[in-house]
Specification:
The structure holds two protein chains of two kinds. By secondary structure, chain A is mainly β. Chain A has strands spanning 4-6, 9-13, 18-24, 31-37, 43-50, 55-58, 61-66, 71-76, 85-92, 99-101, 105-110. In chain A, strand 9 and strand 10 (99-101) form a beta hairpin. The chains are: A mainly beta, B mainly beta.
Chain lengths: 111, 112
Amino acid sequence: GEDVEQSLFLSVREGDSSVINCTYTDSSSTYLYWYKQEPGAGLQLLTYIFSNMDMKQDQRLTVLLNKKDKHLSLRIADTQTGDSAIYFCAEPNQAGTALIFGKGTTLSVSS
Amino acid sequence: ETGVTQTPRHLVMGMTNKKSLKCEQHLGHNAMYWYKQSAKKPLELMFVYNFKEQTENNSVPSRFSPECPNSSHLFLHLHTLQPEDSALYLCASSQDRVAEAFFGQGTRLTVV
């Protein structure tokens, strides 16, 4: 069945790089997404990558895609305390009707 | 502000009450969704509407009843809920079914 797996917690120091990992199951997904959820808020689209790309860079964010291993990662350079949030990996479901999400990775940034 | 507004932000209801959650989007999107977010669980897709028609019901109990009167508004009617239904209910919309979704801030529901 469809499944998106993420590690639940990541703790880093301010200024370090953060790497959040995700594995997915549907190799036919055309796009893969990263969402961010701050406390008390809904999910906000952070970035996405098209499946024919290996890497996408957007300012401090780098997305790496390994289609062979069905592995997606999000790297945040120079992590700031404001980056503390829950990060969700998402892919379209097989029916193409909606996005399915992992459990989310809670990123904690200490100063 | 994402263009998707949910009301109320917080709701406490008894198991015998009837209440409704409201979602409104001003983005001109054609698809709208209800998701349930519980602690330590993946977001659960509940319902999908596309051009006001329900296209997916993800095995949701009948005590949850969605309504989509037009492509800008989505409701979730609640009745005789259980304490385990307490969660954050998120509404989202997208331009088409596989495009990136825009989320509201959610309604924090507590069933007592």
